[in-house]
Amino acid sequence: MDAAFTAEQDEIRRTLREILGKRCGPDEVKAAVRTAAGHDRELWQQLARQLGLPGIAIAEEYGGVGCSPADLALACEETGRALLPSPLLATAALCVPLITALGTDAQRSALLPPLATGGLTAALAVSGPALATALALTGEDPSGQWSGGGRAGGVQARAVTADAAGSGRRLYGEATQVLDGHSAGLLLVAAHTGGFARSRTQLFLVREDAPGLVRSRQAVLDETRPQARIELRDVPAELLGDEGADVLGALAATGRTAAAVLAAEAVGAAGQALARTVEYVRQREQFGRAIGSFQAVKHRLADLYVRVQAARSAAYYAAWDPDQGGLALAQALETLRVTAGEAIQLHGGIGFTWEHDAHLYFKRAAADELLFGPVHRLRAHAADRAGLFADPATAPVGDSAASPVTSPPAPTPTPTSPRTSPPPPAQEKVAV
């Protein structure tokens, strides 16, 4: 394994950091999120033209750059530094992998080229606060009950006679907390089909101009992650892929890749929050000296630096091996939350003001945990997948990895020697 970045990757990072440094300052971010789109459309088109950012992980045959998801994660580390409000996550990290994995040849040829150029954006719509479950980040539901379960609620699909208005499917129901759902030109809607007895979850394509589609932007904690409520009132839709496609498997695979991208994004935000704090404590004086010279402040910053570097290493490893995305995301979100909290504290009174941008980093950490799962559930699911807490009695015979580890009995003390307790076991060092 070669962990070094290529010259192309370094160039993408350098160019992206330069563009965002000029066009995505704190004031520009606050102005962009208050527009109707929730992001700077001109900046989005510039990133698409100069870097091919929306199509960085799309194959060249569909007009993309043809890079790997690891390159997308490295790019998102830079967008996380600037807290860039953009449809990049919803389009490139969530919808593009699903269209690539499940779509027919005709659907890929029709949808991926405009997505790669940035002319079309997409959003994944699932019912209720079930995005983390749908992506198998905090747990797995083989039955797909999170999409409606054939009962009231969620989004339901019914078959109708195909006509010019649709492809034989009509959707009804609603989905909340849809990332960039108010401005996306294409919606990937997870819906239940087949009634209650034979129900299953499938994905459907819904265009922004579909009759019966109602979208409304919601007030959210983190304005840099705009969300919408999607109401579907007998909306014509097109099935993504074939009837027998493994939708839940594709969603789980997309969740692993998205977790690595989100981890890199959170690491970028944490690194920038730490850098701004270090710069501030070097300038802020108290008792005639910079507060950064106080030993207590140095210790706190040193702890944050270790946290950020450890989270960055985990995020880079997850970009290379997406199966580790859940653990990397948990560590990155925790690091961002702690770093942003310390940044507010070390900035003193100015850190609590609405005008300062320290609160934006803290809101990003809190909002991402609400959307993609709290840290403890991300880690618990990763532990379940790894079988760390499996019952030894259910392990197959001869499986040494699952067999219980027993320690030798303690020696019986002699009558002539005092009773002593064995020394505690040495703590193992876990490499990140």
TrEMBL record:
Q: Which cofactor does it need?
A: FAD
**Disordered: annotated span:** 391-432
> Locate the Acyl-CoA dehydrogenase/oxidase C-terminal domain: which residues?
260-385
Please list the residue ranges annotated as the Acyl-CoA dehydrogenase/oxidase N-terminal domain: 6-118
User: Could you tell me the keywords of this UniProt record?
Assistant: FAD, Flavoprotein, Oxidoreductase
Write out the biased-composition intervals (Pro residues).
406-426
Q: Can you tell which superkingdom this protein's organism belongs to? A: Bacteria
Q: Does the keyword Oxidoreductase apply?
A: yes
Matches recorded under InterPro entries:
AcylCo_DH-like_C, AcylCo_DH/oxidase_C, AcylCoA_DH/ox_N, AcylCoA_DH/ox_N_sf, AcylCoA_DH/oxidase_NM_dom_sf
SUPFAM superfamilies, per this entry?
Acyl-CoA dehydrogenase C-terminal domain-like, Acyl-CoA dehydrogenase NM domain-like
Q: Pfam families given for it?
A: Acyl-CoA_dh_1 (PF00441), Acyl-CoA_dh_N (PF02771)
Tell me which PANTHER family the record gives: ACYL-COA DEHYDROGENASE, ACYL-COA DEHYDROGENASE FADE28
Q: Which family does it belong to?
A: Belongs to the acyl-CoA dehydrogenase family.
Question: Which protein is depicted?
Answer: Acyl-CoA/acyl-ACP dehydrogenase
Which organism's genome codes for this protein?
Streptomyces virginiae
Lineage at the top is:
Bacteria, Bacillati, Actinomycetota, Actinomycetes, Kitasatosporales
